[in-house]
Design brief:
Low-confidence stretches: 1-9, 26-30
Structural class: mainly alpha
Order of helices and strands: HHHHEEHHHEEHHH
Strand content: under 5%
Largest sheet: 4 strands, antiparallel
Mean pLDDT: 81
Distance between the termini: 13 Å
Number of domains: 1
């Protein structure tokens, strides 16, 4: 698996988190506060832990890129070219594409993800919770939910990795630019992606059935320790142990790519 597949595979994994989050959370959830502009000061920026290989940078330099704000058409066409079927396009939103994915990937270890910058379309099927017999206001996570993730899992597993390598080489500078502008002015996108992967791989395994409560409109985990987990961790639990392991297999392969510098 080549380094260039990293972004495309990572986007597909991030979409699975969006699948759950944007179909089960309140549409009117407040947006995260904007990051205030920092006062000008001297900052020592550490070198990247997992830098892009020099040969990849050289190839990218030979192919002119559009400006970040004008990149939707080119990046969208490139991504669409590696989707295993035309129906894969229907899962995603195709405006402000790079920023949507960068923000979503960065937010997976956090408590919430921006509704405004979600990268996936809303899905029509509903989240299912099974009532617990003789237990008022208690539910279990229905195993019927697990099939909701199958289309995106299949998409991630079928991506043409050799074709994806060219997308990564060509568009990484724009992904990096979006990350420094929207998230961390001194950060490195590859490093952040590796950190997000490590966070997801550390997600605890839970014993089924998974108990839920419904204090208001939305279901929550009955166990406060589970409810306090990040968006990404909750997604892995809600998709079921078999699907979660499929995702972790993709993430392990992806991590190996991201941490190889030659």
């Amino acid at each position: 698996m080549k380094r260039g597949a990293a972004v495309v595979a990572g986007l597909a994994v991030a979409a699975m988190a969006g699948y759950w989050y944007w179909t089960t959370q309140r549409a009117d959830e407040p947006e995260p506060a904007a990051i205030p502009a920092a006062a000008t000061e001297l900052v020592t920026v550490p070198p990247p832990k997992f830098p892009l290989a020099p040969e990849d940078q050289a190839q990218a330099a030979r192919e002119p890129l559009p400006a970040l704000g004008d990149s939707d058409a080119a990046f969208g066409v490139a991504l669409e070219s590696v989707l295993p079927s035309a129906t894969g396009r229907d899962f995603f939103l195709w405006d402000n594409v790079i920023r949507r994915w960068v923000v979503t990937i960065d937010a997976l270890p956090k408590a919430s993800i921006s509704q405004r910058l979600r990268p996936v379309t809303r899905f029509n099927d509903s989240f299912v919770a099974d009532p617990v017999a003789d237990q008022a206001e208690q539910y279990t996570l229905s195993t019927s939910n697990y099939t909701r993730y199958e289309p995106l899992l299949a998409l991630a597993e079928q991506i043409d990795l050799d074709a994806a390598v060219n997308i990564y080489r060509q568009f990484y500078p724009l992904l990096q630019q979006s990350y420094t502008e929207a998230i961390d002015p001194h950060g490195y996108f590859n490093d952040r992606l590796v950190a997000v992967i490590d966070h997801l791989l550390a997600t605890r395994e839970v014993t089924e059935p998974v108990l839920l409560v419904r204090p208001s409109v939305m279901y929550q985990f009955a166990d406060p320790a589970l409810e306090s987990l990040s968006v990404g961790e909750k997604t892995l639990i809600r998709m079921g142990p078999t699907n979660a392991e499929r995702v972790k297999t993709l993430l392990r392969r992806l991590r190996a790519v991201l941490t190889t510098t030659s």
